[in-house]
């Protein structure tokens, strides 16, 4: 299946690869211990990418990735993928590590690890899995790349291409700072020239990620055979479609040696009786429509889910109708969405993602007060679901009940301070109420959390000028100092790039 990823997301992924050689000559913190039985990839030298700089680099790349249309900013999907990741990370060699998994609006079967523990999972990969253990197997494999720090360790194999990749990056940075749109070609060409020299290392790294991931799967209680079955299916599809095989099989070379190794390890274990979670069914159904590329593909996905629902029972039937309803919401067809939603909830079926969809349909039908009631009832039923708390605030805003929305959003900010959308919504409600300083403060916080630091400084300076209160001015000054320090840190990082 050919990749349908957007050019801008291809650019971000290429940036991730192109940035790595720029951080040579940086002291490296102690590496994770290598589990027994893994292939020897050699020791990491003092010239490799340090964990601290790798984290900063990853965050910088994610700032841009989150702006990409292919990035799926869906709270329920992100939460689900990260729940799987956290279960796996608890059994990672070397102790806990920071991982963030995000979904990508791309129908091709692929997943990828970036610097700093960020892992992208294509919608097409999730929908191609047949069990939750298969999905967990792919996530575990990508976490294996992160745990073993393959990005940093790959530097020794990329030194010959450093000059090319450095030139590509600097061209991209210059164009980005000037607001240009032309850096993609330079980066893609530079990366393409580096691919050949990376392939030998990649095969060894893939085996290491397999074995690390396999161990995490077993420890977390998933069925390790899920990794074997999914990878085996991808290998078979690739062999049947030489040259146009699945992206996952091409970017993660599935050799006979790797498959045999995984099969042997699976045979040594007792049979697993892991049961898929209900969440998996609803997530897969939602991504089935979100991956659709264009109106015709979306309508086809809705029809396919309808057929699937009619042939299914219980939760599987509900999840398929749920996916169809999500598709009709995307089409702005409230009547069809409501009909599919009624079938999804028939017999009293309950799930937080279903409840969230009910709120969205009420808003689509321009019934904001009903949406408020539905959201409040759902949040009371599932108080730990942050997406439902956000649904309450969104419904209150649509009902022009901004004072109440601010109360709810402040509660969310206390419990969930890392979510940028909360501060954007707070700024919107304060703007509607003509609360100038709180509007600016929250807008600045939103910009800071999405990485738009110059914009955050500018908005805080506007708030400082507008304020007449000494204590408020002092508070703004402190916030400005913090953001400017972050700006200086980013400038220092860029200077390190330039020195190299």
From TrEMBL:
<dbReference type="InterPro" id="IPR051156">
    <property type="entry name" value="Mito/Outer_Membr_Metalloprot"/>
</dbReference>
<dbReference type="InterPro" id="IPR001915">
    <property type="entry name" value="Peptidase_M48"/>
</dbReference>
<keyword id="KW-0645">Protease</keyword>
<keyword id="KW-0175">Coiled coil</keyword>
<feature type="coiled-coil region">
    <location>
        <begin position="392"/>
        <end position="419"/>
    </location>
</feature>
<keyword id="KW-0732">Signal</keyword>
<keyword id="KW-0378">Hydrolase</keyword>
<protein>
    <submittedName>
        <fullName>M48 family metalloprotease</fullName>
    </submittedName>
</protein>
<feature type="signal peptide">
    <location>
        <begin position="1"/>
        <end position="33"/>
    </location>
</feature>
<dbReference type="GO" id="GO:0046872">
    <property type="term" value="F:metal ion binding"/>
</dbReference>
<keyword id="KW-0479">Metal-binding</keyword>
<dbReference type="InterPro" id="IPR011990">
    <property type="entry name" value="TPR-like_helical_dom_sf"/>
</dbReference>
<dbReference type="Pfam" id="PF01435">
    <property type="entry name" value="Peptidase_M48"/>
</dbReference>
<feature type="domain" description="Peptidase M48">
    <location>
        <begin position="81"/>
        <end position="265"/>
    </location>
</feature>
<dbReference type="GO" id="GO:0051603">
    <property type="term" value="P:proteolysis involved in protein catabolic process"/>
</dbReference>
<dbReference type="GO" id="GO:0016020">
    <property type="term" value="C:membrane"/>
</dbReference>
<dbReference type="GO" id="GO:0004222">
    <property type="term" value="F:metalloendopeptidase activity"/>
</dbReference>
<keyword id="KW-0862">Zinc</keyword>
<keyword id="KW-0482">Metalloprotease</keyword>
């Amino acid at each position: 299946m050919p990749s349908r990823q957007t050019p801008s997301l291809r650019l971000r992924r290429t940036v991730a690869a192109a940035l790595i050689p720029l951080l040579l000559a940086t002291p490296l913190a102690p590496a994770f211990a290598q589990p027994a039985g893994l292939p020897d990839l050699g020791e990491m030298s003092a010239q490799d990418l340090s964990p601290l700089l790798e984290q900063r680099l990853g965050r910088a790349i994610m700032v841009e990735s989150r702006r990409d249309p292919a990035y799926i900013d869906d709270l329920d999907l992100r939460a689900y993928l990260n729940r799987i990741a956290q279960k796996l990370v608890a059994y990672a060699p070397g102790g806990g590590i920071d991982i963030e998994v995000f979904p990508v609006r791309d129908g091709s079967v692929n997943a990828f690890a970036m610097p700093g523990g960020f892992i992208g999972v294509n919608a097409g990969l999730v929908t191609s899995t047949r069990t939750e253990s298969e999905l967990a197997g792919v996530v575990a494999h990508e976490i294996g790349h992160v745990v073993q720090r393959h990005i940093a360790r790959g530097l020794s194999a990329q030194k010959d291409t450093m000059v090319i990749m450095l030139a590509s990056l600097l061209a991209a940075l210059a164009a980005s700072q000037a607001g240009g749109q032309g850096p993609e070609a330079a980066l893609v060409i530079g990366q393409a020239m580096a691919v050949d020299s990376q392939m030998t290392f990649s095969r060894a790294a893939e085996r290491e990620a397999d074995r690390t991931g396999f161990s995490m799967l077993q420890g977390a209680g998933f069925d390790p055979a899920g990794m074997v079955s999914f990878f085996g299916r991808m290998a078979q599809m690739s062999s049947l479609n030489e040259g146009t095989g699945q992206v996952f099989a091409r970017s993660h070379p599935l050799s006979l040696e790797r498959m045999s190794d995984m099969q042997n390890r699976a045979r040594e274990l007792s049979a697993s009786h892991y049961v898929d979670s209900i969440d998996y069914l609803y997530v897969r159904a939602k991504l089935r429509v979100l991956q659709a590329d264009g109106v015709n593909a979306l309508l086809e996905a809705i029809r396919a889910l309808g057929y699937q629902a009619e042939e299914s029972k219980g939760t599987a039937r509900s999840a398929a109708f749920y996916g169809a309803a999500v598709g009709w919401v995307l089409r702005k067809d409230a009547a069809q969405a409501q009909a599919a939603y009624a079938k999804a909830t028939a017999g009293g079926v309950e799930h937080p993602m279903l409840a969230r969809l009910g709120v969205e349909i009420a808003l689509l039908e321009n019934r904001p007060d009903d949406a408020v009631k539905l959201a409040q009832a759902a949040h009371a039923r599932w108080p730990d679901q942050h997406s439902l708390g956000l649904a309450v605030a969104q419904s209150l805003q649509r009902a022009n009940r901004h004072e109440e929305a601010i109360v709810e959003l402040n509660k969310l900010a206390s419990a969930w301070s890392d979510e940028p959308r909360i501060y954007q919504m707070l700024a919107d409600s304060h703007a509607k109420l003509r609360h100038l300083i709180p509007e600016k403060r929250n807008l600045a916080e939103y910009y800071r959390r999405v990485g738009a630091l110059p914009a955050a400084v500018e908005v805080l300076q506007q708030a400082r000028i507008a304020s007449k209160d000494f204590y408020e001015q002092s508070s703004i000054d402190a916030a400005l100092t913090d953001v400017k320090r972050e700006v200086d840190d980013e400038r220092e990082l860029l200077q390190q790039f330039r020195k190299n």
